[in-house]
Design a protein that fits this description.
The protein is of the alpha/beta class and 236 residues long. The protein has one domain: Aldolase class I (TIM Barrel, Alpha-Beta Barrel). Helix content is 39%, strand content 29%. It has helices spanning 31-40, 51-54, 62-72, 85-93, 103-107, 110-119, 147-157, 178-185, 201-210, 219-223, 228-235; strands spanning 2-10, 13-18, 21-27, 45-50, 75-79, 98-101, 124-131, 134-137, 142-146, 161-166, 192-195, 214-217. Strand 10 (161-166), helix 8 and strand 11 form a beta-alpha-beta unit.
Length: 236
């Protein structure tokens, strides 16, 4: 199982939010500083979210993210503010390993198919952000149906992987909820990366044993509640 340290970017800074609320942001320095920190600790991939993009400015932080990719050469999965084919192409063309399609995948599902055909499924990750089994979009403000049904649809459309974020526990550092993860793994053949609530090496081992392909570490990593080296060992 892969471990993806989160590098969430807001206003050019690396931050962590609680429950996705902008006003809860805690800054941790520059994205490149943090990327290097996690790579030096053993990570070989990063989960980068353009929060300014998610909050409405699709082109924000492009230079910062471009520099991060060029300076590190690491595999990056990127989400946040991808609202069109053009947005997705622009990120893939500068070297992003795969784009995470969230709201746009629900609003315009055909973008999953079209990007998969153009770039290959491995570069297209569909986001399944869910609260109590219901997909939430538009900054987690609007419900959009059953998360398992959407996962199945994204698979049929040609997505190469899924990002499952449990919004109910995201950013709280209180542990994971395994039931929806197990349900999702039972309904799709795609690799699933899990985000939300991962706070201990026990959580990492649990996800590994469930058969998850990857885990995103955010708030617990930045707060020191979990050490990256220990998480990487638990994932093996």
């Amino acid at each position: 199982m892969m471990i993806f340290p989160a590098v969430d970017i807001l206003g050019g800074q690396c931050v962590q939010l609680v429950q996705g609320r902008r006003e809860s942001a805690t800054a941790y320095g520059t994205p490149l500083e943090n990327a290097r920190r996690w790579l030096d600790a053993g990570a070989d991939a990063l989960h980068v979210i353009n929060l300014d993009g998610a909050f409405g400015s699709a082109g924000a932080n492009a230079a910062v993210i471009r520099d991060l990719i060029q300076e590190t050469g690491v595999f990056v999965e990127l989400g946040g503010g991808i609202r069109s084919m053009e947005d997705a192409r622009s990120w893939l063309d500068i070297g992003v390993g795969r784009v995470i399609l969230g709201t746009i995948a629900v609003r315009e599902p055909e973008i999953v198919r079209d990007l998969s055909l153009e770039y290959g499924p491995e570069q297209v990750m569909a986001g399944v952000d869910a609260r109590e089994g219901r997909v939430v979009i538009e900054g987690w403000e609007e419900e959009a149906g059953d998360f398992l049904s959407w996962a199945e649809r994204f698979e049929l459309l040609g997505a190469g992987s899924l990002l499952y974020t449990n919004v109910s526990v995201e950013g709280l550092c209180q542990g994971i909820d395994t039931a929806p993860v197990a349900a999702l793994l039972g309904r799709t053949h795609l690799p699933v990366v899990v985000a939300g609530g991962i706070s201990s090496t026990a959580d990492v081992r649990t996800l590994r044993d469930l058969g998850v392909a990857g885990a995103v570490l955010g708030s617990a990593l930045y707060s020191g509640k979990i050490m990256l080296e220990e998480a990487l060992e638990a994932a093996r």
